[in-house]
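Collaborator request, handled under Task 6.
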Amino acid sequence: MRIDILCKPDQQEICQGAVKNVREALNQLGVKAEVHQFSDSRKMIDNRIYVVPALLIDDQLRIAGRIPEVDEIVNFIAERPRYRQDVAAVA
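Structure tokens returned to the collaborator:
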């Protein structure tokens, strides 16, 4: 799984809050993922994102314009089909 967090270069404190919440959600679920933080306007334009911070999970925009709560991120990860298959295989 790949999680991207997009922000503007002058708003790094907002991005750090989003990264912290993403890592906490991953720890709660025990899921391993690549977490990338981008401060590149080209990446924002390519993904048609106009407000930051933005959270993309596997290249799908999940939330933009505010720092997502840990519970929201947990729900975004849990609703992914691949995550549900992995949980079903363990259960």
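The cover message to the collaborator said: "The chain has one domain: 2-90. The chain has a mean pLDDT of 86. Please let us know whether this matches your experimental observations."
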